Here is the input.
Amino acid sequence: MVEAATVDAWLAELELEPIDRGERDGVTSWDLRLDGLRRADVRLTLILDPGNALLLWVHFAPPLNDSFRVSYRQFLRWNDELPFVKFALSEDDRPVLSSELDATILSRDVLGLAIGRLLAICDLTLERSVAWLYPGARKAPQMGRPSRQAALFARYEAELAALVTAGRDAPGPRLADDRG
Here is the structure.
């Protein structure tokens, strides 16, 4: 069984500093603000239920203002195209990206790779998400600084290679684009 103190230690080893930490009824959560290689300030919440699972929950975009049907269809397609993660809509129509790790397989590297994968997917979907993230913009703004998580991407470079290089005329997932 993985305890909260173990996750605290893993986050420190991965150089990921939570901005908030809470505990209630044996369940611990951490809020982090992380960077992809292209998308800055991605909000990520980790929720540990020690005997069951660690849930990774990315606050992917603000509540949707566009046609619900088009966005929902886009998320369903991405769910088929991207392994190990799921897109969904929260109760307030906020897009979320999540991954669940079974408690029996948890380790520092399983956690680090899962976080890296979520950040890489935020980067991979950036152009297709501009309407949700930056309403009225035609393209995503440049980050304007190096990623604070460059070391995390370097640590898991081999495992994340297909996601990180996709979209740069390299092999990797080709994502559907239902924007119309």
Summary: The chain has a mean pLDDT of 88.
